[in-house]
Amino acid sequence: MAAALVERPARTVAPGGSARNRGKRRVSRWLVWNKWTPYLLILPAVLMELLIHVIPMLVGMWMSFIGLTQFFITNWATAPGVGFGNYRIALNFNNSLGEKLVQSFGATLGFTLLVVGISFIFGISASLMLQHNFRGRGLLRTVFLIPYALPAYAGIITWKFMFQRDNGLINEFLVNTLHITDDAPFWLIGGNAFVAVVIVAIWQQWPFAFLMTMAGMQGIPDDLHEAASIDGANIWQRIRYITLGMMRPINAVLLLLLFLWTFREFNTPFVLFGPVPPDSANLLTVNIYSSSFIQWNFGLGSAMSVLLMLFLVVIAGGWALWNRRVNRNA
Amino acid sequence: MKFRILTVGLAATAALTLILAGCSPATPAPTSSSNEGVTLKYWASNQGASLQDDANILRPELDKFKKRTGITVELDVVPWSDLTNNTLAAAVSGQGPDVLNIGNTNAVTFQSTGAFYPFDSAALDILGGKDRFIASSFATGGAKGQNPTSIPLYSQVYGLFYNIQMFKDAGLTPPTTWEELVQTAKAFTKPAENKYGIVIPGGTVNASMHFSYILGAQNDGSPFDANGKPTFTSDGMVAGVMRYVNLLSKDHVVNPSAVQYTDYTQPAGDFARGNVAMYMAQTTSRNVLTKNGMDASAYGVVPIPAPTGGKNISSFVGGTNISIFKNSKHISAALEFVKFMTSDEEQEILNRAYTALPVVNGVQATAFADQPAQLATWSQILTKQAIPMALVPGVQAFQANVGGAVVALIAKAATGAAISKDDVRSALQGAQDKMGATG
């Protein structure tokens, strides 16, 4: 608004003036703030987005096409181009590296489905429970959110201590308190490691599901529930058809986010198991890290990461299509 | 308000751009003749029982250096678990310390990055010439036929520590062959009393590589052929790794909990508490054992025995080297610092504090003055029974892959799986495939 006022005097100075003045006027109109303010306001965000997301992503893709090994890390420009060589190595399923990748992909898929499914059920159950006002509701809500508020590393390291074989809390409880087994099991190696990593990941993820579903439920008008009660719907029918029905778009987004985040989870397995995870819990991101970056082969690591990204893009794209169809049918 | 936000945003963007532009590697300025007033950044490795222990040992020496030369040294002690990654990050970004310690097993890998200052003959002359150094230690500084990019600082080798009192009580003598070692270990193993024959750092990647290398060499195996190509699955390597894994899976002389030991202080604790009778570790472990309350008179040291008919090898030449970053703006000050650290005087002081072996000829290993028998054993291992670590660029990847594969085998053994020779071979094949992928 202020800009428009500033501009007015310029127009009065040259009423129907010369060609030069007309040109000037066009320039001054060109500079109308009203028109440019939105773009200028968004410019820092665009620059930051480029700087933080887009450029590193493009650099990562470029890295996947060069043989960036220890010999070239001080001067990337000298690294030889290898075309799709890195991708061929990553997708060669005939050697142990490829076998491991397939096995790791399977483990990651199982891990993701379990973590997302259970986190979602926990989250939505807790939200349903906290819909009604009762004493201690605020306290419970806070307690439920603690895992989400804790720094991830601190939480995972605490779990790591609890899962220790000889002096961990879990074994102390199972062996010495409950006497379920006499021989203390290992939790961080062997097959149990999968259970351990799933438990820790659920512990971290479910508060987010809780937060989202709780917010969603608060947006459902009470009238609907009242109307349904009058029509004779019981509590289960109201949950099924009103709560869950109204929350469908929120749940769809929530499940997608949880899936994407969980599938590319790195912190949890890495902090729990270090660079050599047991086969059962050899998740994709750690597998990529230990079969490329730890060998200082950044080209191969980038290629594997790009493949992981493509897979997640396909999932997200498939989700978008499915979602559009569902919305159209609704 | 609109405009102010905009200005702030633009200013922040501009500032960030400037900062990022400033991050590009600076060309080294020509070094001046006087280094007075220069500040060097130094990353020291964790040699002592704790990071603080290191700082306490090094601080007085760095102050002494400042008094003599006017050069300030900013000290950062970096744990081993981070040192390789931090060094790698410094090499990639060109932003690192001026001087840093490296594990000498990684020397050739670091050399191949080109991020480190090669010590040519002029630079070596400043340090007093390469003949000042013990030849086997000096050879760890880089690949053959190239100017080394690291200079030895502390030297150490592996030995077999044994608890004198426990051996006396059992009427046993320290083993001289691997078979005797296993027999002796069995005699000590009583799981019900939480007593075991020997302890291994089962979850530690680099130590697992060390034992694969030493035990493999005893079986006449080598991880690399003459051309530097990996040969992890050669019979010797498989046999060596098999013996190591068997300690847990077949001989059952190791506490299965040891598979979760991810650093070298945990096994030292078991040994110091008398829960195990034997302990394979490097010279500097004396420091950690002392900190754990075990006096040097309570244990003896013998070479890690080879199997009957095997090669008389019991260690590689281990140790810590010191390097200068090529990007340093203070190369001449850095050289002066390396000269100081490798001087006779500092070699004596530092190796005494760290209970390591000096790397220059003529300096006594005063740390072991009170234990002449141990000193004699260490000297014998270093001079007669130690081989160099593989001096190939892929040695860091060898450490990560073979060390990782052995850690995984040990973990499988601990969860009850029987480990066969084929399992060992296929694990090592997996490690070798990764090497192939990385060229």
From TrEMBL, chain A:
Which GO cellular component terms are attached? plasma membrane
In what way does this protein cross or attach to the membrane? Multi-pass membrane protein
Q: Where is the ABC transmembrane type-1 domain?
A: 105-319
PANTHER family per the UniProt record, alphabetical: ABC TRANSPORTER PERMEASE PROTEIN, INNER MEMBRANE ABC TRANSPORTER PERMEASE PROTEIN YCJO
User: Which InterPro entries does the record associate with it?
Assistant: ABC_transporter_permease (IPR051393), MetI-like (IPR000515), MetI-like_sf (IPR035906)
Native species: Candidatus Lumbricidiphila eiseniae
- Domain of life, source organism: Bacteria
> Would the keyword rRNA-binding turn up in this protein's UniProt record?
no
Q: Which UniProt keywords apply?
A: Cell membrane, Membrane, Transmembrane, Transmembrane helix, Transport
Instruction: Provide the family line.
Output: Belongs to the binding-protein-dependent transport system permease family.
Q: Give me the segments passing through the membrane.
A: 39-59, 109-130, 142-164, 184-203, 241-263, 298-322
Q: Where in the cell is it found?
A: Cell membrane
Q: What is this protein called?
A: ABC transporter permease
In Gene Ontology terms, what is a biological process of this protein? transmembrane transport
One Pfam annotation reads BPD_transp_1
From TrEMBL, chain B:
Q: Give the domain of life.
A: Bacteria
InterPro entries assigned to the protein according to its UniProt record, in alphabetical order: Bact_solute-bd_prot1, SBP
Pfam families of this UniProt entry? SBP_bac_1
The record's section on CDD domains has: PBP2_TMBP_like
Keywords of this protein's UniProt record, alphabetized? Signal
| Signal peptide extent | 1-28
- Name recorded for this polypeptide: Sugar ABC transporter substrate-binding protein
**Organism for this UniProt entry:** Candidatus Lumbricidiphila eiseniae
Q: Which lineage?
A: Bacteria, Bacillati, Actinomycetota, Actinomycetes, Micrococcales
